Structures
1.
Amino acid sequence: MSKKTLIPIGPYHPLQEEPELFKLYCDGEIVKDIKWETGYNHRGIEKLSESKTYEQVFFLVERICGICSNSHPFAFANAVEEIAEIDLTNRAKYIRSIIGELERIHSHLLWVGLAGHFLGYNTVFMWAWKYREPVLDLFEMISGNRNSYAMFKVGGVRRDIEETKIPVIQKILDDVKKKTDLLTGAIMDDPVIHARTKGVGILTKQDIIDYGAVGPTARASGVAIDVRKDDPYAAYPLVNWKVITAETGDVFAKAEVRLLEMYESISIIEQCLKGLKKEKPGEISVKVKEIPEGIGNGRAEAPRGEVFHFVQSDGSNSPARHKIRAPSYVNIATFKKSCIGQTISDATISLAAVDPCYCCTERMAVAYDLKSGDKLMNANELINESVKRTNELKKTIKSKL
Amino acid sequence: MDTELIIEKFKEKFKSDILDTVIKNQRRIIITINPDSILYVAGYLYRTEGFRFIIATALHTKKGFEIHYHFSKDDAGLILNIHVILDKDNPRIESLSNLFNASNWIEREMHELFGIDFLNHPNQEKLLSEGNWAEGVYPLRKEFK
Amino acid sequence: MGFKNYCFKKSLWVFHFGGASCNNCDIEILDCLTPRHDLERFGILLVGSIRHADVLLVNGSINIRDKERLIEVYNQAPKPLLVVAIGACGCTGGYFTDSYTFAGPVDKIIPVDAYVPGCPPKPEAIIAGIVKLVENS
């Protein structure tokens, strides 16, 4: 009779940033079942939102997640502006899109670094995070903070991007483009990475539709959904860009989609900067008197997928009900499909490929013991398994070259 | 236009179950239905019309417990809210999780935060309340006088 | 030289505990290891187990469920141990003090030696905080 062994990942592993516990039930080398526990990150944000004014809620929703810090205010602003039927100035639209796309670039670079670490390429981790720094400098120049920019408000944005800043932004974007070329070349052409990521953690189109998954996770399986194209907002209908998809649905496809999306983001920002030059400086928001009674469904495309905010207003200063759904809420559930049947060494990279933003989902952590589950490996050891596999592959592949 | 056609077909099929329709614009529509027909409506939207389930929002208002099921038709950019009103003393409704996996977690969460019972849910166990608050406590319920 | 001073004379090993946080502070702590700030050149290492650590970094507003984990982690740590509360949430609870799952800021649960405020604090601030802590200990 086969023994099922238990391998917990988490809850507090230094590179898995938020508390989350996945328990992998394994039969020998293969993962047979996964359970996960959540609740370690639950902060009661939806209830808190009901006691704050609309302006204060922007500061609250920014802190739902640090990496997609801008997407939540974006969706919330879309929802409230829908209730009050507010039209933004073009300048505000361009600035919003610029911030949204800069965030996408820094988030994808962060992911590339983490994926590199899980595969055993620590140099990729260090480089990707080093190349992220200029983007964070840009944020500091535009908004005053490297994360949590507080740029949005109902009716527009809080700070303008002056004419003098535009050449600086352009210069850093050119640099980011060169570095993205470097990373893309290093990752897409490496035979060991092909061997580690192709055919691993596959999600079929039907899986995506069944779980309602969104973002690069969905686009890598051929489901071409992107809120910026389907339900356009801000400056996205004013510029030219395309939705990036891939067909195979494995970890390689997810990496490819994210890397190619960075080029689209750079192009969108450059077009928005040109658009800004044509608009009158200073017109960054419209006056809003009050938010009437009503319902607003707002959404935005975060780096991880569609963020959805539902706001019900009763005519007062605070939302009567504020529902927040982050993309990782639906994406993480696909872990069950993409990891079962994989080997232990592939489990970490399959998990990381979904780019789980645990704090967005407000829940993470699970650790169960099925049957006799003895503890085999902790999180560190799991990553070491993955690194070992990469090293084995390096030997076999490089010996053939 | 696409949206009008979809709504006409929907109204034809479910005329006896629809209680109210609010069309805000081409992309935002709210249809209030009888809670007993939620499975048929959700099945029709998901299987026949190709809608994607985004999430469900529960609310506690003076009318009782309300749920908005948010469905998205991506190629038309449409969000269709299917709205139901449940009994204030004993809120219960059929679970959608046997139809698709997308609603599994959110129904467990609504059960923990509001106390709504989802009938025939495959595993209506705790999602995030373990250790965070006690049994029988529903943090998002409101006090109405 | 006291025992505590002796222990912290050489390079510090750091363990990071993230409570219910938005992850901004976690990313800024990890940023300290990356080439721009590069803490490792001072011998400061991020370790995977509390039993190897000299310094415990805590961030995030502590949720009722995290509280026991935090106490467990603190008890498992070999003493002497320096505790640093990072970020607005770590220092005072930040935005989330009114929430129904808030279990008190870090200094109500375990003794804290240094506070690094900010939302999130820049990597320079975190490094300055740790350096000041070591100088004063």
2.
Amino acid sequence: MDSHRLLAKLWKSLIALVMAFFVINVALMVAAVATSSVARRWLGTWLPEGYTLGWYLAAWKEFQLGSVLWVTVEVVAAVVFLSILIGVPAAYALARRNFPGKRLLMGLFLIPLMVPPITYGIPLATVMYQAHIAGTIFGVILSNMIPAVPFMILVMTPFIEQIDTNLESAARVFGASTFKLFWHVLLPLLAPGILAASLLVLVRTIGMFELTFLTAGPDSQTLVVALYYAVFAAGVRAPQSVDAMAIIYMTITLVWLLIALQFVNPTQLVSRVKEHPQTA
Amino acid sequence: MTQLETSSFDRSLLLLVPATLFMIVLFVYPFLYGLQLSFRPAEGGWLANYAKFFATDNLWGTIGTTLKLAVPATVINLGVALPIAYQMRNKSRYQKWITTLLVIPLTLGTVLIAQGMLGYFGPKGWLSQALQFLHIYDDPIRLTHNYWGVLISLIISGFPFAFLLTLSYITGIDPTLPRAAATLGASPWNQFRHIYLPLLVPGLAMAFALSFVQAFSVFPSAVLLGSPAGATRVISIAAYEAAFEQYDYSMASAVAMVMGLVQLVVVVAILSARGMFYRGPVSGGKG
């Protein structure tokens, strides 16, 4: 009996150790980037010789961060807004109605989340180059919506399913028009779900590399793609200014992530794909 | 909800039209276009692209290279995630903190992880210095610009993903089942072996498939952290080069189709293997 308890304790410590090892290394990795971004000169010593904030200014100018950030804001805002506009009505119909071909349609919305972006991104970029929308901000927004719309639908469908249908029926009985029903009954009920889903889409779109990379032109890069090019061509630039840019990127992501975590569960960030579409 | 179904056409189904159209125009159409484009090579017969792919070493070889990275990464990620997620199956402050901490590497994205690893794991980084300081390993370590760099980055970004996915499956299991087993004297190990594991198999298969797909499509870290011309020339690099360096969209589509096919084969194999285990509801009461 005692040896059992000892074994259980050892097992628990081992798990805590693995966990700590992972978290500490990742934290130190981020700390290394942060230290380097404020380092005057840092070559093979524990800590840099001096500190400066100059690299942030340099990164801002060198990588035209002002316009890159503006593009990022435009892309993310448009993707979130359009995904709500297209996704929420579809989620409502999927949650409330049964119809032939429903499973097929659910499959259509599920596949883009299970296939890596590169696979469909390359044919998509080819089509977009022929239609002359690749390289424009419009193309970047459209391609980022491909995973965002299905994600919105898959998060919102179970949320709408748990809203009591009697509320809608009651509003109808009292003579509410479709518009009034939507504006005064459904929208307030849906708001928390839409907020949560939008934040998830927002965080995922900021970090979406492949699709933006494949369809963006020089004037339509988002921050993550600009960061890739900066790292890719790191040889010609001071590494510290690339690090400064990485920290700016991380700060933006983290702020939004912390906001998102006020409203959603961390496990929702990894698309919680249902195995079988619910046919309630 | 059956009372809402009517025999006449239901106008609320029109709500589905924009989303369906969007997916058909931007997902289904490009995919089919790419498929037919891959059969119309710049020169040669309709199968010339595929013939070239399987006859050229630095194209054909990318499948093996990618699998050599994706399979170990997926096995490690899921193998470590499962015991840790099992340990944290009960809701607690501890669980909330760990999940929050683990979400961070997930959202940093592969590019930032690559940049961080170049500094931290590099030959002059803190890790190398610490190992030298402690005299564990005296030469500068080489964990970047090779196979290991890419594998580590796949673990940093993939482990949190596998963990959160596994955790959501474990917490979805009705806790009264193991509690019943515990009252009958089952040890934690036996609870895991006879109750959790059989119920988890479908979820684990799904988690494996999703983690694998992520690792298989590795791209930025293979370029930034690996040796994109050699040991980590993965299949997405081959597809990218065909499209944006040789401007051979037909060949690029063919590579993308091969990539999709390999994934499909692995995912189908995993998901059909799970059919050999228990299938049924994992949450008690009404679903």
